[in-house]
Amino acid sequence: MKIAVLEGSPNKNGSSNMLAGEFIRGAKEAGNEVTVIDTARADIHPCIGCIHCGYDGPCVQKDDVEEIRRQILGSDMLVFVTPLYYYGMSAQLKTLVDRFCAFNGSLQRKHMKSALISAAWNSDG
Ligand SMILES: Cc1cc2nc3c(=O)[nH]c(=O)nc-3n(C[C@H](O)[C@H](O)[C@H](O)COP(=O)(O)O)c2cc1C
């Protein structure tokens, strides 16, 4: 199986990437092919909601998402990796998720497997 891991932490050696690293190690040991996409370091502009893409077409933004789109649609499974930021995903990962808009149709038709890996720490706990 081809797995795309979308890493969303700005801390390259932080907790969420450490968890992702263990997932990746196990996935590879089990014979899967893994592609890691570092959303915190990739050039990813925010969706501007123009819908020029028609939810399944070329995006007006010209950045790394053209290649990331190919990698995602070439995969069987998506793994979302994020630190918990105010009870949501990081802005870095969310910016990419919003850009799914331009391949929304293709993505839905694929019925991919998915998983969420997240690290959090709440000082009120
Ligand atoms: C901007 C920001 C918001 C955060 N919001 C939460 C939160 O809502 N709940 C929580 O338990 N931890 C929160 N945290 C703590 C992080 O989730 C925690 O430190 C996590 O381990 C960071 O992952 P990383 O090491 O991969 O960067 C927040 C941290 C930051 C920097």
Please describe what this structure looks like.
There is one protein chain. The chain has a four-stranded parallel sheet, with helices on both faces. The protein is α/β, with parallel strands linked by helices. The mean pLDDT is 96. The chain contains four helices and four strands. Helix 1 links the parallel strand 1 and strand 2. It has a single domain, classed as Rossmann fold. The site of flavin mononucleotide has 15 residues, from helix 1.
Keywords for this entry:
125 residues, alpha/beta, Rossmann fold, four-stranded parallel beta sheet, 4 helices, 32% helix, binds flavin mononucleotide
Give me the CATH fold name. Rossmann fold
Q: What hetero molecules are bound to the protein chains?
A: flavin mononucleotide
Rg, Å, rounded: 15 Å
Along the chain, the helix and strand elements come as: EHEHEHHE
- What is the overall silhouette? globular
Briefly, what CATH class? Alpha Beta
Which architecture would the CATH scheme give at its second level? 3-Layer(aba) Sandwich
Average pLDDT reading: 96
Estimated structural class: alpha/beta
Rounded to the nearest angstrom, the distance between the terminal CA atoms is: 38 Å
Any low-confidence stretches, pLDDT <50, length ≥5? none
The helix content, as a percent range, equals 25-40%
For the record, the count of structural domains works out to 1
Q: How many individual helices?
A: 4
The fraction of residues in strands falls at 15-25%
Strand order of the largest sheet: 2-1-3-4
